[in-house]
Amino acid sequence: SRMTKALLEKDGLNWRQKLPPIPTVPVSAQTRWSVPSAGAPGANTPPATAPPGEPGESLPLGWAEPYQTAAGTERARTLKEEGNELVKKGNHKKAVEKYSESLKLNQECATYTNRALCYLTLKQYKEAVQDCTEALRLDPKNVKALYRRAQALKELKDYKSSIADIKSLLKTEPKNTAALRLLQELNRA
Description:
- The chain is mainly alpha-helical.
- The chain has helices at residues 2-11, 27-33, 64-88, 92-105, 109-121, 125-138, 143-155, 159-172, 177-188.
- Helix 6 packs antiparallel against helix 7 (143-155).
- This is TOM34 protein.
């Protein structure tokens, strides 16, 4: 708890995000930290990461969880940025792979909308709709998710749903010119 207090003073409430990623421990090394105790469930299961201190030292409940989450979040952010760079270069297929890896570690609204953009470019409209729906589950008023889902639904010829998404978007941003333009196209369709 002294270390937590020191980190809080130094880095503020987001001190966990500033921790370095956890190095992976080879399976051969993990077995050394496994200390079987008679009849304890999971006694022979090695931990996913090496705990600090001596083998067999008891750890506070939930020790690894925030630490692993912080490392996972950082890795997810890096993968998302790599995806963003690939989109700038026009390599949408590779970007989809990076975004997919990122989403396995951390489900983030922006990553879903970014991957949906790639799917739109690749004419994979059903996948784009799914990603936008996931993004909207995380943030129901996300403008990009509503707009991109409306675009994908238009391509799938589901005009009614597409118009509904655009109308939801316009409630949040009534002067969104791209959305107004898409609504005009939909009304003509």
